[in-house]
Design goal:
By secondary structure, the protein is an alpha+beta fold. It folds into two domains: 3-186, no CATH class; 252-399, no CATH class. Helices cover 49% and strands 14% of the residues. The strands form two sheets. A four-stranded antiparallel sheet has the order 1-2-3-4, with helices on one face. A hairpin with a 5-residue loop joins strand 5 and strand 6 (337-347). Helix 1 runs antiparallel to helix 7. The radius of gyration is 23 Å and the shape is globular.
């Protein structure tokens, strides 16, 4: 999921675990823990694009790393509160939280001026918040929490991050180092406000109340509960959409080897579906508001034969195939260049005039049969972004 969602989920879990004992500090440290696994994006500076792609949502998202991290961080935070001025520990912790969040925004998906400005403003606002808030004398009060209490907070705040990622199409390697399989249930978009907003509202209502106030706990749990119910809805909704998709394939007389469905960005109403046959994919979309319960499907040529050598013999292509879970098509726009389309994430608008607008497109150079990935996946950028989201909204409303 997106960085904001992971941060607020960590804060909500931290509050549920230790809020009664340490108050807002539980939200703060939960937010830190909820953001930590995504710092693997820093690898973009030290690895080749293909290795950084494989590293993301890898070992930092493994369950065993969450356990080790919880033991170490819980012990460390307990020591900090035992020997340091409490308000400065809290203040620096909030700043670290903002640094992690702004850093994950800054590094993800390529660096841009807009992201740089947003990250700097975020840190500036957080710095002002810290200055005003932590002058209060109550932040020097004793902390009634053991090492074990802090370790439990960090365990639940860390492990819920990769678990949540498992529900997305991108998936996560939560079972490393035992297997590099990316666990992906494909039932929720990487950013879905209907999951995130209840968590935010629950935290905003809870944070203003005393630590031992029953309503504080109730508000936070309401947020967690509503988000969890929504997650269960997306799982049930996926089964319904799967039925619509397989029924559409059968009605249109399409034979296929396997298929998958996934929701489009920011919603769970409009879904994409892709089925694989010998030489082509069948791609289509369906909205819950469509008048007909049917995917309108179009053929997409695999073009796997355009690759000059077996995929397994080239490290870059092998990793892209693994990342795409085999759902990919390729195109040669010019000699020495290869486009690799990951079909799992669907398209904002896929029409005869916008054939290449899949959400994930990889740009590769080819030299004597050796392929090199130029950068992380690129998103559709031709034309007005607002127009694309307008097209998405119109499609969500149904046809």
């Amino acid at each position: 999921m997106d960085s904001l969602t992971q941060m607020v989920l960590g804060a909500a879990v931290g509050e549920a675990t230790l809020g009664k004992k340490v108050g807002n500090r539980a939200m703060m440290w939960g937010a830190v823990a909820g953001t930590l696994p995504d710092l693997d994006v820093i690898a973009n500076f030290f690895m080749t694009p293909i290795n950084a792609l494989a590293f993301h949502r890898g070992i930092t998202h493994a369950a065993i790393v969450s356990l080790i991290g919880a033991l170490i961080l819980g012990w460390l935070v307990h020591r900090l509160y035992k020997y340091e001025k409490h308000k400065w520990v809290a203040a620096s912790s909030w700043f670290i939280t903002g640094l992690l969040l702004s850093g994950s925004i800054f590094f993800s998906g390529g660096i841009s001026i807009e992201k740089s400005i947003f990250s700097i403003l975020l840190l500036a606002l957080l710095g002002y918040f810290i200055y005003k808030r932590y002058q209060r004398p109550e932040y020097n009060t004793d902390i009634d929490a053991t090492t074990g209490d802090w370790q439990r907070l960090f365990w639940w705040s860390l492990i819920t991050h990769p678990i949540l990622d498992c529900f997305t199409t991108y998936g996560t390697q939560i079972l490393l180092p035992f297997t590099d399989k990316r666990v992906a249930f494909d039932n929720i978009a990487v950013a879905d406000p209907l999951y995130t907003l209840p968590l935010i509202f629950g935290l905003l209502l809870a944070i203003r109340r005393p630590a031992n106030d029953k309503l504080r706990s109730a508000f936070n749990w309401w947020g967690i509960g509503i988000s969890s119910v929504y997650m269960m809805f997306t799982l049930a909704n996926k089964q319904y959409v799967n039925h619509i998709f397989t029924d559409s394939l059968q009605k249109q007389g399409i034979e296929y080897e396997r298929f998958m469905t996934t929701p489009t960005i920011l919603n769970n109403i409009l879904w994409s579906g892709v089925a694989e046959s010998d030489s082509v994919y069948y791609f289509g979309q369906y909205s819950l508001f469509d008048s007909k319960k049917e995917f309108i499907l179009q053929k997409i040529a695999k073009n796997h034969d355009l690759v000059k050598q077996p995929l397994e013999s080239d490290n870059t292509l092998k990793k892209l195939k693994w990342f795409s879970n085999g759902y990919f098509s390729v195109k040669i726009p010019e000699p020495g260049k290869l486009y690799w389309f990951d079909l799992r994430f669907g398209s904002i608008r896929l029409t005869p005039n916008h054939k290449d607008e899949f959400v994930f497109k990889f740009d590769l150079d080819e030299n004597n049969g050796i392929y090199t990935l130029n950068d992380q996946p690129t998103r559709p950028r031709d034309g007005d972004i607002g127009a694309m989201f307008s097209a998405l909204w119109n499609r969500i409303k149904g046809i």
